[in-house]
Every structure is written in C-alpha cells, then in structure tokens.
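sorry for the late reply, my laptop died twice this morning and i had to redo everyting from scratch. anyway the thing you sent over, i finally got around to it. pasting the sequence first so we're on the same page, its 414 residues, then the predicted structure underneath. double check i copied it right bc i was rushing
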Amino acid sequence: MFEAVEISREITGSGQNLLLCGDAYQQQPALSALAGQAQAVYIDPPFMTGETFTRRRRFGTSGWKTGRPMPEYPAYIDRFADTKEYLELLRSLIECAKALLKPTGVLYLHLDWRTSAYARLLCDEIFGEDMFLNEIVWSYESGGRAKKYFSRKHDTILLYARSKDYHFDLRRVPLARAEHRKNHMRRCVDENGRSYSQITTGGKVYRYYDDAPVYPGDVWSDISHLQQKDPERTGYPTQKPLKLLERLLLPVVREGDMVADLCCGSGTAMEAAQSLGCRFVGVDKSPEAILTTASRLECSDLTIDCPCTMDETPLEVQRPRRDAAADGLPRRAPILPEDRAAAGHAGKLECGQNHAGGPASDAALPPKPETAGTAVVLRSAGRVRGDCCIDGGRGGAEESVSGERLRCPNNAFW
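ok and here's the structure:
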C-alpha cells in the first residue's frame, strides 16, 4: 500500500530553470520575481477551437513498439463562453509577457486565423504600434481540403519588440539558396569562377551569388507540420516542431539569456531554449503539459513548482465500464484494493518494471486520472512513475489504492 504525500516543489541543482503549473496571468510570486529578465517570450495559447484536447501516451513494451496500447490523458480544454472571455485571457497573457521582458527582448505570439486579427490590435495597444516587427506566416501541409473556401493551412506568429533597443541578428538563421534558376535574372560567372544571378534595377546592378546564404522572409513554407508518426511527437496535442522554435529564437537570444513560454504545452520552446544554451521558464495550467515538458529536458538545474492539495474523495479502484447486462455479457465484480494486493498489483511499480522486477506488461495499463472511480497514477511535482519519467524511464505505473488522490489548482487530478 502507498502513503499519499504532498509535494509542491522539486529542485534539481541550482534550480535556475523553472517549470510552473498554474495560470501565467495570475499573481504568481515565482513569475513576479523574474520581471524584466526575459529576452524572449513565446506564447502559443489556445486558439478558441471549442475542442477538448487529450495527450496520448504509449505504454509498456508493446506501446513503444506498435503504438498500442496508447491511453489518453486530459491536456487542456479550449472552450470559452464567448469572444470577450477569450480576449481577456489573451490580454492578460500579453501583459504578463511585457512585464517579463527586458528592454532588448521580444514577444512571439502564435495564433491562427480565428484570433490573429484580435491579437494584433491587443499587441498594438499594449506594446505600441511602433513596436510591431513582423507578422510571420508559417505555411504547412496537413490533411484535409476545404471545398467551400480556400484551405486554411497556415499559422500567424506576431513579433513585437519591448523597446527600440531590441536585439535581432538575422545572420544566425541562414538558409541554403534555392537551386532552381531565376529566369528573370541574368546568369553570370565572375573572375573567380563563382556563379551568380544578376539584375539591374534603377541603374543599380544587384548580384546574388549561388554560394551565399539567404535569409528567411516573413512567409515560411520550408518547415513541415509534425506528421502523425514523426519521432519528435510526444503525444501532446498541437505540438509545434523544434525546427520552428529554433528559427524563432536564434535571431533574438544569446547564450545565457532567459526564454519564457507562458503556455508551454508540449515543451518545444523549452527544449529549443536549452539547446541554445539559454535559461528557460515554462508555465502551463495543465499538469500533463508540465509532465510532457519535463520528460523532454536534460536539465541539471531545474525547479518544478506544482502546488497540490489533497482531495479525500474516496475512489474505487475499478475503472468504470459500460453496463455489462445491457450488452448481454456476464457482470464482473469490482476489484477491491485487498484483491489487487493479493494479486500482486499493490506492489510498487518502478519505471519499466512490474512488482516482480520484470518488464511492465500492457495488462498494467494505468487508468485515466481524470475519470471518477479510477485508481490514480501518483505524480509528485512532475516526477512520475509512468511512461514519461523525468529520470528517463518508460513504462510501468505507480498506483494508489488508498482511496486518496491529488488535485492541482485547476482541478485536474494528478
């Protein structure tokens, strides 16, 4: 049997990097202490789709080999009463971003066709119209085609500066020049044997050498949307590709700078920041987002701040199922805690092992923590006995049959 413990913070090393479970726009002491320190803030908020999103996690040896079983866990709810409620959230996030940025910093706000126009007006109001730098169009290919209008296959990323002293170095994101011939330009070879294209405009001659780098404009079509079987996928919905975040961050940060993501979701921005030698702060109200982000990082200096409170509501261990009688099937008695203990299920399941020390079997599939009446997978401040452990393990689960469960501030069960 397990003893439920309440752990709200886990610190590794100096703890200079932060993952915070909660709403970024609320008065969070941990965020207030970082005011004016971030060089870049990235926000990928809900898009007001009206949907409920879940994260699919591979489980056990079979799960990692074949993709099954792959239970779903709650990620976030993207539903709002009306546009006004959504814009209040967006305004709060933008104001929080401005407070975190230092004078040389910039904001990236990632949205789509639903709310990008509203966001542009809000950013103009909060940052100032003269602080607008770019409206980046990320164009991608994905499944489905519209028949009654042109297919909506791009996202919009707004770029705003905190002040006129912002840092931006485009030379850090060179691209290879396209190999196709520019038919409207004259092809030439200079005295050193270097090929180039040439055009004369307004009496001036412009040369574009084939071996010289080019740099991105504000329409990006060379970065692919993550496909279903992409090895980069974490199972978290709306995950963005690492290459996209690296291109966004490279021109605006230097090694040692701080990067903040106020809706960190799958943790792509945190992984990109770490790969560039930056400190990072990730915030999300979803415990599943904090778990996913932590599992992607190899960080020796990390604080995971996830306040929890005990919920004494008793739980049955048996997962709810359809009425067997209605299906013409024999009824099955619920599995009681003492039955599970007798069967060996109450033993502690380390990562990738069952109670006997062998590989975790698919039969030990962890129940969904959001469903009333299930045994709860215990997590403590992000360190999880499950398929995505911070310490690198995969498979297995640690279950509580004590009738207690952990509840986070946003009422999501841990």
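The radius of gyration is 25 Å.
thats about all i looked at so far, will dig more tmrw
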